[in-house]
Amino acid sequence: MKRALKKFKLAAVLFLAVSMVMYLPLSSVRAVENTEKVTISMIGKYDSADTAAIRSVDTVKKEIRFRNHKTGKTYTLSYDNTSMMYDVRGVVLSASLLEPGQIVDVTFLKSTKHITTLNVNGEAWIIDSTKDHDLVRGDGTARVKGELYKIDARTLVIADDHLALAEDILATDAIKVSGIDREIYSIVVTSGHGYVSLSSDMVSDQSLVGAWIELDNAVIHRITPNMLLSAPEGDYNLQIIGNGANYQSEISIKRNQETVVDTSKVTIATPKEGLVTFKIVPDSAEVYVDGEKVLTGVSQSIKYGYHTLRISAEGYITQNKYLKVGTAKSVVNIELEEEETENSSSAESSSSVETTASTSTTSDSSTEKSTIDESAATESTTDNKVKSINGTSGSTASAAGSIAGAASTKKVVNGYKIYFDEPYGAEVYFDGSYIGQIPTSVAKISGSHEVILKKEGHETKSYRISVDTDEVSLNYTFPSLVSFYDDDDDEYYYDDDDDDDDDNQDTDDDDDDHIEVIELEDSDNDGDAGAEDEIEVIDMSRGKKGAPEGED
Fold it and tell me: What residues contact 3, with CB distance under 8 A and at least 6 apart?
């Protein structure tokens, strides 16, 4: 009995010992578990969302920069394999296929600045590669392909992969525009411009000033002293005609680079003249060639080349055209349209007009499209026009033209000036005409203009500006030009940190005027320029109104 009791006690002790051994490790494990952090997956989680335009995509750093349209601020988010991206149809999209200016809906974690999802916005519209635009209107709107949209400092503008202003974009630049509803979110330049100048405007002691320069019928401009023109990038057949010159050459215009035409190869001959007869309906119409009134119904001797042409009659819509004479004899037939209402565009033509001119000479038929940017041609002391023109010439030297762009009436604001204050020492070209070195000034002329700044050792830069008709002088200060020796391009282009200070508003006010080219040419003849030019003033939205004339 005692032995059994002893065995029972021993068994009880062993049981307690085993229980304690089993209990202690378990509590220790629980204690350790209670001290460890719990990891929760954040895949698919986000705390912020935005509809924004893409500023840039860096596939090496795996970062995307966005422009918040509500604030105009730029921010950067990272992405990786956990970031889900989809196109407008919901198909999985690679970040490498995203493009600057694209409007997307993005969700992300604000603390980590990491993209959770990115979807191409399904409500966004895109107008791709168009030159039919007017971005500088001065009223907070932009006209693109005939439609008006809202534009302001929040709009993302990209040129050459850098932030830019609407004023940096010329009328000849091709752009891609994206937006939602009637608001523009982004503008990206898809095809830009370069510059063309002459090595000299004197040939064999004879001046080329007043003659015309053509770039493959894409740009036609009257030659002015020391001129510098902008032109769309591309390859062209260049022509210089007028003042006895008839020169052709192949040239290439590269973006943001200047091409100098060697005029030492130009030959000057005695200018030829052709007999032109104007037959106008109604008979009471008055015809002005290069600002001078000419008779109708009888032959007029006119030099070969381009000339300004204005036809007007009481009760009819006035037509402004360009006449290109290149044959010995020709007839211009024009029928004016009657005015429909008293408020119809100040009797200025605003619709396409077909004109036929018959001549006794014939040549091979051809079709031409041209854009005329005649920044200096005037028809009075106060009015000046810049026009885009499509023209067609045929075997009978007939011409039918239609509008390719809008024109604006430019009026001299007597007694007031436009002052250019910076960058100091830069040469200023106003609508292609040389003005001088900054600081300098020109007479104030209202309307839309192009300003080109040039300085040795620096990149040439152009702007569009808009000048009002207020009786007050204007002062313009432009950013410093980029040095060819400066590796930091950001010093010139607008920094993201200052996006909200960039003024991208439109400042150009163009009327819907139309000008047509009437070509009366023979392939073996040269031409003459015609009317004297007046310097046109360029319009820029960054300009600041100064004190009235005579005040500091």
Answer: none
Q: How far apart are CA 335 and CA 316, in angstroms?
A: 10
pLDDT surpasses 50 at 395:
no
Q: Rounded to whole angstroms, how far apart are CA atoms 103 and 119?
A: 9
Closest CA to 409 of 430, 390, 387: 387
Task: Check whether 256 has a pLDDT greater than 80.
Answer: yes
Give pLDDT tens digits for 177-227. Answer: 999 999 999 999 999 999 999 999 888 888 899 888 989 877 888 899 999
Looking at residue 44, its pLDDT comes to 67
Provide the mean pLDDT of the chain. 74
Question: Would you list the DSSP string of 80-141?
Answer: -TT-EEE-TTS-B--GGG--TT-EEEEEEETTTTEEEEEEE-SS-EEEEEE--EE---SSSE
Residue 355 has pLDDT above 50, yes or no: no
Q: Is 32 helix (H, G, I), strand (E, B) or coil?
A: helix
- For 202-247, the DSSP string reads EETTEE-TTSEEEETTTEEEE--TT-EEEEESEEEEEEEEETTEEE
pTM: 0.62
- For 57, 134, 238, 304, the CA distances from 401, given in Å and listed in that order, are 44, 21, 22, 20
In contact, 114 and 43? CB cutoff 8 Å: no
Chain centroid to CA 211: 27
Q: Using CA atoms, how far apart are residues 474 and 273, in angstroms rounded to an integer?
A: 44
- Pick the more confident residue, 98 or 271: 98
**Single-letter amino acid code for the residue at 76:** T
- Single-letter amino acid code for the residue at 466: S
465, HSE (Cβ side, Cα atoms, 13 Å): 30
pLDDT of 114 reads 94
Q: Pick from 51, 88, 74, 180: which is nearest to 127 by CA?
A: 180
Structure tokens at 477: 């200060």
Residue 300, pLDDT score = 84
Could you check whether the bond before residue 548 is cis, i.e. omega within 30 degrees of 0? no
Smallest Cα–Cα separation from 537: which of 414, 401, 441, 415?
441
Report whether 240 contacts 227 (CB < 8 A).
Answer: no
> Alpha-carbon distance 77 to 114, whole Å?
5
